[in-house]
Amino acid sequence: MRSLILLGALCVAPAHASFMVSQSSAIVNTQEGIVSFDLIFNQVPDFYTADQFGRYANAFQIMVIADPKRPSPEMYDSIVRGGEIAVANTIPIRAAFPKRPDGSWGETRVEVPFVLSATRITFSAPLAAVSPSHLDGHFGYELLSEEYGASTQDVRLDAYVQGDIPEPALMWIVGAALMVLVRRASMLNNRTAGMYQFDNLR
Length: 202
Known about the structure:
The chain is α+β, with helices and mostly antiparallel strands. The chain contains four helices and eleven strands. It has one domain (17-192): Immunoglobulin-like. The strands form two sheets. Strands 6-5-4-3-9-10 form a six-stranded antiparallel beta sheet. A five-stranded mixed beta sheet has the order 7-8-2-1-11.
């Protein structure tokens, strides 16, 4: 009987949940030339703890698409480097190319402040720095997240120009879509956790 009780306890023990974004939006104000990002994570992020290899406990990256028909890195307008928050407590917006001698992304165009409250991070950046190829505000982006260097999420989303869709409805739509993708990614990660690295987050 005692063995059966122990077995039952092991079966219901909660598994570690991978760090992911559960809701996200990028809203463009074309009159002011500003892009406002709003991300909600599935847990309180730790952007400052690093392992012996310099990989942070949690990181995210937004890769803004210029032309999906081009090869990488020329297909990207900019890289929003959430993985560099610990460096100067800001979020750098970097050019995708030419890459630097160490193989990391290109020069920093601007560094922007952010507000982190529990599981939510918000920040704004100049549209000209984020998407110089799409100053009308209609651009797509790849949202990536990782945990100590291992990929946990890679989704393709679109920015919205302010006024196109009411903001509360926008957050619901994007949040619902991301929840579906998070569930799919969680199922995949349960089978492949720790088996691959996310080299693009450099």
